[in-house]
Amino acid sequence: MDGDIAPLKEIVDLLDAYGAHLIVDEAHATGVFGQNGRGLVNEMGLENRVFARLHTFSKALASNGAALVGPKILKEYLINYARPLIYSTFTSFNNLASVKSAYEMLIAGETTELVEKVHGLIHYFRSNINVPDHMLLPSTSPIQGIVMDGNAKVNALSQRLIQAGLNVKPIRFPTVPKGKERVRICLHSHNTQEQVQQLIEIVQTWFRENGIELLENNLYNSNSSNSTESIQDSRASHSNATKVSVPVTLQVVPIEDVAEVSRSSTPASALSVSALSAISQQPTRAKL
């Protein structure tokens, strides 16, 4: 919900001490981090220390289902004992064709420029928005958020943005705890810098009109969490990693080819599992 980054290195350091296994949901990391969009675990070089990774097809791939990447014994166990999988209708041919097309784009590197653009828009937004530091979520992912107290405030700001053609939705209590209501901004590669600037200007104008003081200086550089710093350090040590993304609707999150996953540094098999929902490929509003 916050678009923040889990401290995976710190988490995996605890696994041996407690005899635990870790499963990582890479839904929003797939395509944004790691070589060929393999996700955060790959980005941080932790494939051999994580038991399983779930890469969904329902984000930037605009399909449904997922690939569960893990050891062969996990695949065999789920095939034989996972009742939701056993008794689910298999995905349609059209859906498989959609996923395959997205795979081909990722493998060919056709989406590299798109994800680089997304990261540029993220940096531009955070470098230019001057809302109070405690109200801006500490995220370096495409998911950004401005937190305000109360459903009425986030409803009002969201409505102002929607009226301007910016598809920014409120996240209200009880979806989030009281006092943590926010407008949730999902940047994607179809956005332009001009649209992001328009977003910033509308937000800051609304703040002034409602008596909320803005910062004189942007605190973006001091807003990075330790997890973000670890990601940046990891990128420096994996300079050959290629960030790949397929943009869909409001989110930027694709997945690597199943066959490519099977040939990764971790002996792994990919298992297609059914998902509960899909994201529309054609948004009714075209902005943020």
TrEMBL record:
UniProt KW Transmembrane keyword: no
InterPro entries attached to this UniProt entry: Aminotransferase_I/II_large, AON_synthase_class-II, PyrdxlP-dep_Trfase, PyrdxlP-dep_Trfase_major, PyrdxlP-dep_Trfase_small
GO molecular function: pyridoxal phosphate binding; transferase activity
Gene3D superfamilies: Aspartate Aminotransferase, domain 1, Type I PLP-dependent aspartate aminotransferase-like (Major domain)
Domain (Aminotransferase class I/classII large) ranges: 1-201
Top-level division of the source organism's lineage: Eukaryota
A biological process from GO: biotin biosynthetic process
Coiled coil spans: none
Keywords: Pyridoxal phosphate, Transferase
Cofactor(s) the record lists: pyridoxal 5'-phosphate
SUPFAM superfamilies in alphabetical order: PLP-dependent transferases
Family from the record: Belongs to the class-II pyridoxal-phosphate-dependent aminotransferase family. BioF subfamily.
Protein's UniProt name: Aminotransferase class I/classII large domain-containing protein
Organism, scientific name: Mortierella alpina
Organism classification: Eukaryota, Fungi, Fungi incertae sedis, Mucoromycota, Mortierellomycotina
